[in-house]
Amino acid sequence: MGDARKKPNPASSSSGETLIEGRRPLRCIVKLGGAAITRKNELESINEESLGSVCAQLREAMASSSIGSASPPPRGISMDWSRRSGDRILPVSVDDFGEHSAVDFDNNFVIVHGAGSFGHFQASTSGVHKGGLHLPLVKAGFVATRISVTSLNLEIVRALAREGIPSVGMSPFACGWSTQKRNVASADAAQIIHSLSAGFVPVLHGDAVLDHLQGCTILSGDVIIRHLAQLLMPKYVVFLTDVLGVYDRPPSDPNAILLREIVVDEDGSWSVLKPTLEQLKKEVEITVAAHDTTGGMETKISEAAVIARLGIDVYITKAGTEHSLIALKGQVDNDTEDWLGTVIRSSKHAPLSA
């Protein structure tokens, strides 16, 4: 599929474009959905169990191609040497790292996470997504939103580091990302590319950024992923959510049906390939939480469709499950019904037997 993919054509110029030549292809971009790693109904509350499971699966996925074994790799030595309130400081031995040097992670991943219960309250209360930095409430909300989302980013980086994954947090605002009419206008990827080349795993997040026309807005993680996919052309993209994938109606509806495969045409239109049920001829219902300033599932599908048009398969599935591990490893089999999730791909690359 690599030869059939379009040449990267990022939405805006970036000094990172000149750095792509000669570097090995990016394996995967992962989106950690805010609803999957936080408790969205509890202000600034991390779902520690889910986040821990996701980080362990990322470690296993990164090690799978280099170790060549079906068994999980040994847990890496923690790279989080900082101390939480009340924690004991654990001694760090340099000898420990020599013993684990044989575990050669294929850490050519980029991770982007949503905000979940972090940032959305601050942004929606102050109207940051609507702009208006001249207003005191909006300016204060911009600051409050960034405090919240960067604190979550730090905790996710720490969780990855405790698994031995050499992760580094990167905020779009601090990296110079900006928008115009809420579309990406400037996105310097040089720091991301340099970090990948140095063996680090960049961890970005949805952020409050400056907008050239309305002053400021919210740049969602889904939009960030689309832009990075256009620039870096990963082998595949994975969205980890709190449900198994895309449904024909809200997943809370007992009659909701999981859409197993969606194909995207060149004109951007998309249709459901699996399941081929009569009731799916109606429009798919999309709901967005009232406090969600990033567009929710509707944005996720539209951005995934743009990525799929590039010839890059997109997998959407539930975080912390056997299905998410398969997706992270890039081992989704089109011919099996055992994997539960949604595949979004270009109609040019859809299986002929479908």
TrEMBL record:
UniProt feature coiled coil, ranges: none
Keyword field contains Zinc: no
Entry keywords, A to Z: ATP-binding, Isoprene biosynthesis, Kinase, Nucleotide-binding, Transferase
Binding site for ATP: G116, D242, G296, K300
Alphabetical list of InterPro entries matching this protein: AceGlu_kinase-like_sf, Asp/Glu/Uridylate_kinase, Fosfomycin_R_FomA-type
Catalytic activity, reaction form: isopentenyl phosphate + ATP = isopentenyl diphosphate + ADP
Annotated EC: 2.7.4.26
Domain (Aspartate/glutamate/uridylate kinase) ranges: 105-317
Entry protein name: Isopentenyl phosphate kinase
